[in-house]
Structure formats: C-alpha cells, structure tokens
Design goal:
By secondary structure, this protein is of the alpha/beta class. 40% of the residues lie in helices and 19% in strands.
Length: 415
C-alpha cells in the first residue's frame, strides 16, 4: 500500500468514525463477520493533537492484525468517537459505543479525568476499557486493562538513582494541581526520605498555567539541587523555557520529570531540555530492531516521515495485541472472556516485553531513565534488566508481598 493510500484510509477512518478495511483484505473475510471495537480519543479540542496520535496507533495495530488474518479469522472494525477534550463528552461517547454500537472493548481516554468519567459506564455495562496512559494508580477495576506505567514503575528506580548517581539531596517538587502530580509527589517523598535526602518544597500551579517566573524564582531561592517535575501539558513548555531564561541550568539543578516526553521536547525546543531527565518505560531512542521497525511503520501509516513516537503511543499500539491474544485464549469476544483471557498475556512490544498482571490487570513494564539531548531525543542512562510488577497502591504501602488490588477486587481494609 503506498503512502497516499494509507493517508486516505486514516483520514477516511476519522471522518466516518470507522476504520474501513482495504479492498484487498476485505475479500479474505466473510461479510458481516467483523469484531467491532471502539477508539475513544479526542479528535477536537485542546488534547486532540496528542490523542489523534493515540487513535492512529490503535488503528495501525488493527490494520496490522487484519493484514495477518484478523482475530480468530475475523477482521477488526474500529469505531472511532471524539471525546472532544471534555470528560462529559467522553461519557456520552462511551455510552454510545457500549450501548448503541454494542462493542465489548474500547481503547481510549488519555487523562485521568476522562477515564474517571467513563469508568462507571464500563463497570455498569460490563464492558472493557484498555487505557494506555501512565497514571497515578489508586484504582482497581475489573473493567480496565492499564497498559501505562504506575508510580512504582516510574519512581522506584528514579528517586534512588537521582540521589545515588547524581548526588542530589534537596528536592524541589513541583506539579500541576490535580490528582496525578499529588499522588506522584506522595510516592516520591517516601522514596526521598528512605534515600537519606529531603524535599524542600512541594508546590502546585493550575493546569495550563503559563506564568512561571515566580515559581522558578522560588526554586532559585530554595537551596534545592534538583527539581522533581510532575508538571503536565502546555505548562511543561512554559516551565522549562522560564527555567533556562532565568539562568538556571540542568547541569547544576536538573529537572527530573515524570511527564515530559518527546512531544513536549519538540514543542519547547530541545535546547531548553538538554541535560534534563525523564523516567518512562519507553523512549523513541531505544536502539532495538523492534523499535526501529515500529517507528518506520508508524511513520508510513500516518504519512509523515518525521512523525514522533512516545510512551503512551507505544502502549496504545501494543495493548491491541494483548486484546487480540485474550480473545484467542478464551475463544470468545465477551467482556468476561477478555478479562480472564488477558490475565498473564505477554507481548514483545517495541519497548520490550510486557505482561498483563494476573492480579490487577496492570502491565509489567521495564523502568528506564532518559537524559534529553540537543537533538530532542534521549540517551538511556539507566534501565532495569526486566519488567517489574505494577503496584497501583504503592503510595499507600502496597508491596509485591502485600497486594491491595487482586483478581478478587480491592481490599479496602488495607487503605
């Protein structure tokens, strides 16, 4: 399939709300035999730039699966709906997909706000949501497969590394004012204190805040030797630019982030982030053949030879294959069958092996730390040898030998 053909299919899918199958594949499948799934991402509004990429990753995975023969010999039909960057709209579209379109699985949502808005619908109607974004944890739903990182997979390696390898002892914690940054800060504080260091501040600014002069000045006057940033969205760009413009440097007081990705680096200009760090399970710079192939295929699929991949996009892609394997394991497309079939499923993702935890339906992922360079990419400076178990309640004392979230549900007595 040439580039123009791919672009046409992608554009048509978004315009019609359905990912159509190419003609050369359609003849290989029986008419009316498609397995419908939802792709619920913002196609309009402030989050659409990023969420359109996530929708493309889901559509790309479905296209590749269809090209390889589908799921149990049946094609995937992706019904795309627009969350419009609004939690209320997300809830309305989730109801449409689950009730009217009768899909048992939806891939979607990008923010915790949108996930929380749709969760009651999936639980009440017993449908499955596959959610790809790293998040704050503190959730245990039998109706969600969480393929993004939870705090122990981003911070358990990160904070000790900052203290031991960078030699930093005084943390200035800063974040956007909502649940994710506050939960990440809670986990961080315990790790900081356990490592013999201290946090000198824990500050928050509203989502979308763009005036960072006062906050950066606080950092300068605090005596901190490292900044732990849980800032999200467009505020990341304003923060990093103000940080450098006020004369601070990542060599002396590095920003160590949990959210800043290749997307934000490109938007701010790589010179503002060079020397800073981020902890993610996936970086575009991973030098493996699997990742190189993934990047090439994604660029071809979206028709952009310079398209960027990043952590949530990779998870949006590989979770479709986990879903496929769950159906094939159970030989059934119902939510109950997918829920049980997906437990323990493994997949060789672009970022390495992943596994769906049998207990909590979160994914085992490999923690990595990247240092941003002048070309807008990262150099991997630390990497676990293998994936680690997700602990969504790590902030509240959950450990591998003391699970709060299991296949039987949440043991709230431990909270």
């Amino acid at each position: 399939m040439n580039m123009k053909r791919r672009q046409f299919l992608s554009t048509a899918a978004l315009a019609t709300g359905t990912l159509a199958m190419p003609g050369y594949l359609r003849s290989a499948f029986a008419e009316g035999d498609a397995i419908k799934v939802g792709a619920l991402y913002s196609q309009t509004g402030g989050l659409s730039v990023v969420e359109k990429m996530l929708a493309s990753a889901v559509q790309m995975a479905a296209s590749e699966i269809n090209a390889a023969g589908g799921v149990m010999g049946r094609p995937i039909e992706v019904v795309t709906e627009d969350g419009a960057s609004d939690p209320k709209t997300y809830a309305e579209k989730a109801q449409k997909l689950v009730i009217k379109d009768r899909v048992s699985t939806v891939f979607g949502c990008h923010t915790s706000a949108s996930r929380k808005a749709v969760l009651p619908i999936f639980e009440r109607r017993n449908a499955m949501l596959f959610y790809q974004t790293h998040y704050e944890g503190f959730e245990c739903s039998p109706n969600v497969v969480y393929s993004g990182a939870v705090p122990n997979q981003q911070l358990g390696n990160y904070i000790p590394w900052i203290i031991e390898k960078l030699g930093k002892k005084k943390f200035f914690i800063v974040g956007s004012n909502y649940v994710y940054p506050r939960e990440m800060a809670k986990v961080s504080k315990g790790l900081i204190e356990a490592g013999g260091a201290e946090w000198v501040a824990d500050e928050y600014l509203e989502l979308g805040h763009s005036e960072w002069a006062v906050m950066v000045n606080k950092i300068k006057e605090s005596g901190a030797d490292v900044v732990l940033s849980n800032v999200v969205g467009d505020s990341i760009i304003s923060f990093y630019r103000e940080f450098i413009n006020q004369g601070l440097s990542h060599e002396d007081i590095p920003i160590c982030a949990t959210v800043t990705s290749e997307i934000e680096i490109a938007a701010m200009g790589p010179e503002y982030a060079a020397g800073s760090y981020t902890s993610f399970p996936y970086f575009m710079s991973l030098e493996t053949e699997a990742n190189k192939s993934f990047i090439e295929r994604y660029r071809a699929f979206v028709g952009d030879p310079a398209a960027t991949t990043y952590h949530s996009l990779e998870a949006a892609y590989f979770q479709v294959f986990l879903w496929k394997q769950a159906i094939e394991a159970s030989q059934d497309t119902t939510a109950e069958a997918i829920r049980e079939g997906v437990r323990g499923q493994t997949y060789a993702a672009p970022g390495g092996d992943v596994k769906v935890d049998e207990d909590n339906l979160h994914c085992w992922l490999t923690p990595r730390i990247g240092q941003w360079t002048a070309d807008g990419q990262s150099q991997i400076v630390d990497e676990y040898p293998e994936p680690i178990k997700p602990l969504p309640y790590a902030a509240y004392g959950e450990a591998a030998d003391n699970l709060f979230c299991t296949a039987q549900g949440l043991d709230s007595s431990k909270l």
